[in-house]
Each structure stands twice: as C-alpha cells, then as structure tokens.
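Backbone-to-sequence.
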C-alpha cells in the first residue's frame, strides 16, 4: 500500500538531520527542548516565583499613599486629571466620578521608609527586602486580555506563557519535576472572582513539552498520578516501554516533534509518580513553618499552602512557579473584600520571602507580586466613608519584586496626586518581562521562536530592561 503521508515533514523527518532526529536527540539530555544559545550571560536568578494577584489589587489602598485625597472626598475627579481617558462599560454611564480616598491608614516601614497600608502588616515587616514599582501601566482595560498580556506579552490568546518561554530557553533543573508549575487559589475576599483559564500557563506555539503543569488543591495534585487498581509500577513501566517503542517508530517515520513531546511527557509523568507525592507531603515540615506561613498553611489549595509548596518546588529546582490568587476584583465593596484578600496573602507572602532568605535561596530566586492593572481613584457605585468601590485602571498601578538581582529597599516610579497618571519612570508590561528575562541571563530580543513565517518573542516589538532597579 503506498504511503499516503509522503509530505515534506515525512521526507525531512526520515533524514539523519531532520526534525525527528533533532527532537529525539534533545530527549537524551536533561535540558530537553532547551534553546541552545541561552543563557546569553551570567544570570542573577536561577528560578522565579510569580505571585499573581488576579483581579487587580487597589494600589490606593495598599501601596500608593495619597494623603491629600482626604480633602477631596466626594468631589468630582478633575477633567485635568482624567484627560478624557477611556472608561469601562461599568462606569462609563455614571453621572459623577467622585473621588474616594482610602479609608485605611498608611505608615512608613523599614530603613527604606516604604509607605504600606495597615492591610499588609507582615509585608510591611519585609519592606527593606522589596522593590516597589509604582508606575506600572498596561494597554488592556478588561481582565482576561490584561491577565493574558501579563502572562504572554499579548492580549490575544494563543501565545506562549512566560513560564513556557523560560522552559524553552533555559530547560529544566530537575528531570523528575516539570520546569513550570502553576497553582490557583480562591480568595476569601471575593470567592466568585474572575475565572482563570488553563491557556494562561499554556505553551502556545512552542512545543507542548514546555506548557505549565497545574498542581490541584483537591484530590491528586496532578491528574492520573496514581496507578489504577490492578496496575503496579512494574506493569506501568512495561506499558510505557511498549508505547515508547511504537511512538519512536512514528517519530522516525514522520518526524513530528509532538511525538517526541509525547514520549518525554510519558516519561516525566512516570517519574512524577515518585517525586510529586514526596514533594506535596508536608509531614517533614516543622510546626514553626506553618506558624510562620499562617493559619491557612495546612489547608491544601489555599494561597498559604501554595506558598509553602512554592518554596519546596524552588528547593527542588523547578524553574518557574506561578501562584494565581483570585478575588481582587472589587467594584462595589472594596473595604470589606480587600481585608479578606490581604488575610489570605499578607502573612504567607512575607513568610515566603523570609523563608527563602533564611535558606539562602532568595539570592538566586526572583519574587514578583502584582496583578493585571490597578483601580480607579473615583468611586464605582455608592460612596460613603466606609464603603466604596473602584473600577479597572490600566494607567498606573503598583507591584513589587524581591530577590535575585533586585535592588532591595527602594521605590521606582511615581504617580500624580490622584494615582491616576504616571509622573515619573513609566514601566510597561514588556519592560517588566525584559527585566525578568535579563535577570535569568536572557537577552529578551534573542529569545525568539519562528511561527507562521515570523519570529515571535515574549516582548514582541519593544521593551527595555529596568537598570535602575537592578542590584
């Protein structure tokens, strides 16, 4: 019977230097699928823990102290400040845009004198380890495109996530665990927050071996981790060997790199049957660890528990760990809801930074904390001194970084008196991405992948490294 699949892929896949040979040879090393030229220079960071606060924390109620707003309570936001900037559909129809000062107290902390809200007393305790960026801005004004932009460098779904880019560029540090792990927790401030989609840790057009592996908070940490009844390790090993032999024949015949990915992922899954249960069993953690991370740290699936797990993943060489914490989307009752979100995240975040520092891991681990945009100074809905809401605000917002290569105890960027416009050192999402890659030893303009006729990169068409915040 004639071969009905005699295509260019089939032809080149059968050659000694074809795609199939290259894909197979890459399986033989621990850095499977790694782009050969990276790192470009000596890195400051080996790994990243990205604490993504989904829903957009209010900079006005956490980090961007604007005491003069108290005298503007319930006055109209000046046109000279708003400058006709676009609004979401949720507030575009409002007849007024009254200024809503925060109801929370701020104080300066540490030798750096960082201004931090009373909502975050534990993070205030590590202020001198942090670098605050108060001049972040983004192009997206709605949640899904904004979150997608932070994860992939594009508002349009389908691009590789930042963790996938790092897996592709740098490979893995541990052959028994994924290079990229994601975890999702639900906030107590607003449990019914914006949904998150698996594509946010997907590999896009990169080989699928680089996609993030989601660790679940209930049941098995990873699906199908345990063998079904009647199947033991020896039987599974024989099954995998037989499947690998069949896949190898097809890889040799067709040269499809997705077949090579399948072989590698089956093998990783087999090794994870041993590595993941050991990783996720906290029995070896002393009680002092749980006391440090807070009362929720023993409850699987909480942000606090995920922070403990992030440190354990970090110890085992996982390249990129991302914690998504939902519930920061606070449109009508921000003061009540933000307290729950801060309860979830404040103590575990500070404990994670201290824990890494005490173990000598903060020196080569980069920590990032922040959401997809900020919140407006004007109130959405009814305004009182005790209750107010805030709409989406992409023009300026705050994040912080800590750890490898970051200058501690500093603040970069500034906003106007209404925290509405940037007045000093604007930072675009691509600038943040360029800086993250730089700390990992990667020139962001050189980490590219050819797809559909052109070379794509995480920072796409622009982005500059933030040299002033580098140690």
């Amino acid at each position: 019977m004639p071969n009905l699949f005699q295509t260019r892929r089939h032809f080149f896949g059968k050659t000694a230097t074809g795609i199939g040979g290259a894909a197979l040879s890459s399986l033989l090393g621990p850095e499977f699928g790694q782009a050969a030229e990276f790192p470009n220079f000596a890195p400051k960071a080996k790994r990243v823990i990205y604490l993504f606060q989904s829903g957009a924390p209010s900079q006005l109620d956490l980090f961007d102290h604007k005491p003069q707003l108290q005298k503007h309570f319930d006055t109209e936001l000046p046109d000279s400040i708003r400058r006709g900037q676009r609004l979401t559909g949720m507030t575009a129809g409002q007849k007024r845009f009254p200024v809503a000062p925060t109801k929370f107290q701020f104080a300066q902390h540490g030798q750096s004198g960082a201004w931090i809200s009373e909502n975050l007393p534990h993070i205030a305790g590590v202020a001198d380890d942090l670098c605050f960026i108060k001049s972040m801005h983004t192009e997206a004004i709605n949640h899904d495109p904004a979150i997608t932009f932070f994860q992939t460098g594009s508002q349009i779904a389908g691009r590789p996530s930042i963790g996938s880019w790092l897996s592709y560029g740098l490979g893995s540090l541990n052959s028994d665990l994924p290079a990229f792990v994601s975890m999702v927790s639900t906030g107590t401030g607003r449990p019914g927050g914006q949904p998150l989609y698996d594509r946010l840790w997907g590999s896009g057009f990169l080989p699928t071996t680089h996609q993030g592996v989601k660790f679940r908070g209930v049941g098995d940490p990873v699906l199908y981790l345990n063998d079904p009844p009647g199947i033991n390790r020896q039987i599974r090993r024989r099954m995998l060997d037989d499947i690998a032999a069949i896949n190898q024949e097809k890889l040799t015949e067709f040269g499809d790199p997705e077949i090579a990915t399948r072989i590698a992922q089956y093998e990783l899954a087999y090794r994870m049957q041993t590595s993941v249960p050991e990783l996720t069993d906290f029995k070896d953690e002393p009680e002092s660890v749980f006391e440090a991370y807070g009362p929720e740290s023993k409850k699987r699936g909480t942000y606090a528990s995920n922070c403990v797990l992030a440190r354990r993943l970090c110890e085992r060489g996982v390249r990129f760990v991302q914690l998504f914490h939902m519930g920061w989307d606070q449109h009508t009752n921000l003061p009540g809801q933000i307290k729950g979100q801060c309860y979830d995240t404040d103590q575990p975040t500070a404990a994670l930074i201290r824990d890494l520092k005490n173990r000598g891991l903060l020196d080569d681990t980069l920590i990032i904390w922040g959401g997809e945009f900020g919140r407006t100074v004007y109130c959405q809905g009814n305004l009182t001194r005790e209750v107010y809401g805030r709409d989406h605000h992409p023009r300026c917002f705050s994040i912080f970084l800590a750890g490898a290569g970051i200058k501690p105890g500093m603040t970069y960027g500034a906003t106007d008196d209404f925290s509405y416009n940037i007045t000093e050192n604007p930072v675009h999402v691509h600038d943040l991405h360029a800086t993250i890659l730089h700390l990992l030893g990667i020139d962001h303009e050189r980490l590219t992948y050819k797809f559909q006729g052109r070379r794509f990169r995480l920072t796409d068409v622009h982005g500059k490294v933030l040299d002033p915040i580098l140690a």
